[in-house]
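Final report, Chapter 2: Outcomes

The project's central promise was a pipeline that accepts a single protein chain and returns its three-dimensional structure in a standardized token representation, suitable for archiving and comparison. That pipeline is now operational. To close this chapter, we reproduce one record exactly as it appears in the project archive, with the input sequence first and the structure output second.
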Amino acid sequence: MATPWDEIERGVEAPGQTHEGLMALGEQILENWLEGRGITPTEARRESFRLLALHHQGAKDEPSFNACRETCRELAWHYNLLKSGGPEEGNAQRLAMMVLVARHLMYFVRGKMEVAELGEFCCSSRPIREMDKESLQNQARG
């Protein structure tokens, strides 16, 4: 049975993903965090981005969630670069970076939901990825 996280991961990894699609997935990631805490996600915007408003809402009473603040800001930055329609020669690289940033945000928030202490540093989601890898290897064995 697929989970919302499985759907988000497939979306992030989907060939032909657009900057609009990746921004929507970023919002969905943060919506999952809020809904998991019993909070209705805001429709408000901060600095023109709903993503940043969702992060602000999600960090209230959860200081360790601020670890992904810069990740959200970077996702918005890459979105702006692609939306502005600048020189096309860099767009493939910008979109690839946006995929990496969205994936990083997904791993952090998913990990934070699974391990409450996660978040002193955003890259501390690594134990969750390693746990997933171990679980998959154990399932494959038997």
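Archive annotation: Residues 91-114 form the longest helix (24 residues).
This record, like all others produced under the grant, will remain available to the consortium after the project formally closes.
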